[in-house]
Design goal:
The structure is a single chain. The protein is of the alpha/beta class and 372 residues long. It has a single domain, classed as L-arginine/glycine Amidinotransferase, Chain A, CATH 3.75.10.10. The protein contains eight helices and 19 strands. It has a three-stranded mixed β-sheet with strand order 4-1-19, covered by helices on one side. Strands 7-8-9 form a three-stranded mixed β-sheet, with no helix packed on it. The longest helix is centred in the first third of the chain and has 20 residues, at 62-81. It is globular. It starts with 15 loop residues before the first strand and ends in a 9-residue tail after the last strand.
Length: 372
């Protein structure tokens, strides 16, 4: 494995030196249990679950698995060609079934590595997954994370959630008048007596801006996590984005450099800190549904059509963008960016773009004030 520099990553745009790129090895199925369906509820509305009553596994055709792996390898190669040291997680080598005292699931490989870890300066923060199938996913990153720890990185973990029946807050949906009882009533997980709503949170609910961190909290699970972050890292300023999305925000707001951001639509400005509301904004061109593969013959999309604004900055002037989104490439090039185009065909099936697939562990920037 390549040598590591000391862990240091405070923002989304400073020169990228080291990164973990996820792996799609053995991503052969979605485990479509209640935790999965609630997490992806905006896009996942099968009734009944594909495959028939009592069948929770949504099998992904092998050709699509191979194409996804090919495109992720292309991302890793493109970043290496930019001079970035690329680390990869361990791979399971086979389909893995996992079990807790309250539920069982088909494990998800470490593809969307942004979700279960946040790098905040010199600290590794392991988060508390929403989806049961992902509870042990970070074990596949530990061969890399331990090397940073041995070189001086700090390491904290949020309380591991039991994810028993009743752990997940459905308040985000209730406030919008959305009835999710079909999902909650069908949950086969066992309850844990005395346990209420747990601390549950993904790293992709954060955007880092030096000393300031944007944090989306859409329900009580997330509010507990925001409290934990503020208690654990008091030297950072965590700004509440009050339900700007149901969970992840890296297809809603993407800072490209100080004073400039990608933003899905103008309506999201009001959710941001006042200092960011004066930033220059690039609104991504609309994407038509016809631009994406159709999975309706066996399944469904688990990501929205905005997934291609999920870009990764190599530095303040260089951005990795899906080559299948030429409209955004032209807009960024017109703004003076160097675009690194990389093909990503199955982003709506895998539920992630280039920001999701990567965990930037070393960037050149520090704990700067960008919102003063």
């Amino acid at each position: 494995m390549p040598q590591t520099l000391p862990l240091n990553s405070y923002d989304e745009w400073s020169p990228l030196q080291e990164v973990i790129v996820g792996s799609a090895d053995h991503y052969t199925a979605h485990h479509v249990d209640a935790s999965f369906q609630l997490f992806y509820y905006d896009n996942v509305t099968p009734d009944p679950v594909p495959g028939g009553a009592g069948q929770d596994l949504l099998q992904i055709p092998q050709q699509l698995v191979d194409e996804l792996s090919e495109d992720v390898t292309g991302l890793a190669d493109a970043l290496a060609a930019c001079g970035v040291t690329v680390h990869r997680p361990a791979t399971p080598g086979k389909d893995i079934d996992i079990r807790s005292p309250f539920w069982d699931a088909r494990a998800t490989p470490a593809l969307n590595v942004r979700d279960n870890t946040i790098i905040l300066g010199d600290m590794i923060v392991e988060t508390a997954p929403h989806v049961r199938a992902r509870i042990f996913e970070n074990d596949l990153l530990k061969p890399v994370l331990y090397r940073y720890f041995e070189d001086g990185a700090r390491w904290q973990s949020m309380p591991r959630p039991a994810l028993a029946r009743g752990s997940l807050d459905t308040g985000y949906f209730t406030r919008q008048g959305i009835d999710v009882t079909r999902v909650t009533d069908s949950d086969t997980a066992l309850p844990l007596d005395g346990l209420g709503l747990e601390l549950i949170f993904d790293g992709a609910q954060c955007m880092r801006l030096g000393r300031d961190v944007l944090v989306n909290a859409a329900n009580y699970n997330h509010q507990l996590a925001l409290r934990w972050l503020r208690q654990t890292l008091p030297h950072l300023r965590f700004h509440l984005l009050d339900a700007i999305a149901d969970s992840h925000i890296d297809s809603v707001v993407v800072p490209l450099r100080p004073g400039l951001m990608l933003l899905r639509e103008p309506k999201y400005l009001s959710y941001l800190p006042k200092a960011m509301q004066t930033w220059d904004v690039i609104y991504p061109p609309a994407m038509d549904e016809a631009a994406f593969p159709d999975y309706s013959d066996f399944g469904f999309n688990i990501a929205s059509r905005y997934i291609d604004m999920n870009v990764l900055s190599v530095d303040q002037h260089t951005v990795v963008v899906n080559s299948l989104y030429p409209e955004l490439i032209r807009v960024l090039e017109d703004r003076g960016f160097t675009v690194v185009p990389v093909r990503h065909r199955h982003r709506r099936l895998a539920g992630g773009g280039f920001h999701c697939f990567t965990l930037d562990t070393v960037r050149a920037g520090g704990c700067e004030d960008y919102l003063d």
